[in-house]
Amino acid sequence: MNKKQKKMLIRIIIAAVLIVVFSLLPAEGYLRFVLFMIPYLVIGYDILKKAFKGILNKQAFDENFLMAVATVGAILLGDYSEGVAVMLFYQIGELFQSYAVGKSRRNISELMDIRPDYANIEKDGTLEQVDPDEVEIGTIIVVQPGEKVGAVLVIAFFYTSDISLLSIGVGVAFLMVMYVANRLGVKNVIFYGVVGICGVWTAFLMSGIHATIAAVLAAFMIPADARISEPAYMARAEKLIKRFRNAEPNSVSTLEPEQVEIIGRMIGDSRDAIPPLQRLEHSLHPLVSFIIMPVFALANAGISFEGINPADVFSDNVAVGVMLGLLIGKPLGISASVLLLTRLGIARMPSSVTVRRLFGVGFLASIGFTMSMFISTLAFVDEAYLIDAKLGIFAASIVGGVVGYVLLKK
Predict the structure, then answer these.
(1) Integer Cα distance of 321 and 1 in angstroms
(2) b/e map of 60-72 (b: 16 or more CB within 10 Å)?
């Protein structure tokens, strides 16, 4: 922890102790108010200060303002301990976030420090150490045991130089809680989601081990069997549908209470017939597909739209050339290769694949990020050209995805 984080930890401990002590005292009225204002100001004075500055700068509606309103409102209603506790838990969350971000930055810095100091090249049967920049294409490089390649593999798997055994132990304890709950027949998706994310994932993140491992381990602990088996669900569904069909309808658009009760049971049975693992996966799919993955892709691509003039982007033809290469080169190359191999009798297309669908797949292939970005970094040394190339890749990916979707939809 840095100096600022240590001060925050001390404030959290002091405020927590004061809350416990004052809660045990038989104080009432204004005395109780004054007592609880002490830990409130100890833990929340900076939040109140930021909220006040935000109001003065006409940028009131941020997290500091909302937290100040929530806690002050609770105190005005007489819920002193609750108001102070909310501020305390908020500051605890901010401390964990600050600590995790700081550790991630250090790990990323260590990850980037993988450039070797020298290279062993074989020349006339002997080894010679030279600067990596002097290595030419075709040169034989000899890697000795314990050199940088091994370090790269270790960093790639762990992304850290120090491991917190305490955090690992906490993460394993949460995993055991999930395992025991699984064995006891607990099928509540919210339980596994909260314990898996707030417990296992957070603990492994704080430990220094890549958090992806936590997600994999947590997934093994979530039940993959449903509360209701398929035959039982089908029997219940047929019975409920028969009841709904025989229920006496009314002459208006609303349903009768009996019909509502039947539909409610059908919804509950349908939910219980899906394994918790699949329900959690299904619920997270929109968030991952439409928010997390696009943000991850854009962040790792290093694309910033701030201060970009469209006229300047398309003035040097770099962005246009990259777009045309992806939007014309890829679909044409894929489709022409498949059609040529089919005509020559080397390959055969399935009967369900039409030329329209073939071109649709070709346009989907114009979506490029990893290799396209990598090739751009090799091709362009100038930073302005590299940004133009990335924007061209980004634009071509959008257009290619839309065109491919339209062609494959029909």
Answers:
(1) 48
(2) beeebbebbeebb
Pairing of strands 119-123, 126-130: antiparallel
pLDDT at residue 151, rounded to an integer: 37
Instruction: Kindly give, in sequence order, each residue whose CB lies less than 8 Å from that of residue 258, ignoring residues fewer than 6 positions away.
Output: 247, 248
Apex 396 CA angle, 393 and 397, nearest 5:
85
CB 298 within 8 A of CB 395: no
Distances (CA, A) of 327 to 288, 330, 339, 396, 410: 26, 6, 18, 6, 20
Separation between Cα atoms, residue 325 and residue 91, nearest integer Å: 51
Question: What DSSP designation does 128 have?
Answer: E
For residue 242 the two structure tokens come to 């028969």
Distance CA 65, CA 71 (A): 10
DSSP designation for 143: P
CA distances 309 to 298, 305, 321, 381, 391, Å, are 19, 9, 18, 21, 12
Instruction: Identify the helix (H) or strand (E) that includes residue 278.
Output: helix 276-287
Residues in the chain, pLDDT under 50: 108, 111-112, 114, 145-146, 148-161
Q: What is the CA radius of gyration of the chain?
A: 30
Amino acid at the residue 85: A
Q: What is the pLDDT of residue 158?
A: 43
Q: How many residues does the chain have?
A: 410
* Amino acid, res. 112: M
Contact indicator for 138, 156 with CB cutoff of 8 Å = no
Please choose, from the candidates 101, 82, 100, 102, the residue with its C-alpha nearest in 3D space to the C-alpha of residue 23: 82
Are 134 and 152 spatial neighbours (Cβ–Cβ below 8 Å)?
no
Which DSSP helix (H) or strand (E) runs through 237? helix 230-246
Q: At CA 145, angle to CA 142 and CA 148, rounded to 5?
A: 75
Reference 370, options 404, 335, 388, 397; nearest CA is 397
pLDDT of residue 173: 92
pLDDT value at position 177? Answer: 92
Is this structure's pTM higher than 0.85?
Answer: no
Round to whole Å and give the CA distance between 373 and 215. Answer: 28
95-113 per-position pLDDT tens digit: 877 777 676 566 545 544 5
CA pair distance 81, 16, nearest whole angstrom: 11
- Nearest residue to 172 via CA among 207, 141, 134: 207
Under the phi-then-psi rule, with left for phi > 0, alpha for psi from -120 to 50, and beta for the rest, what region is 400?
alpha
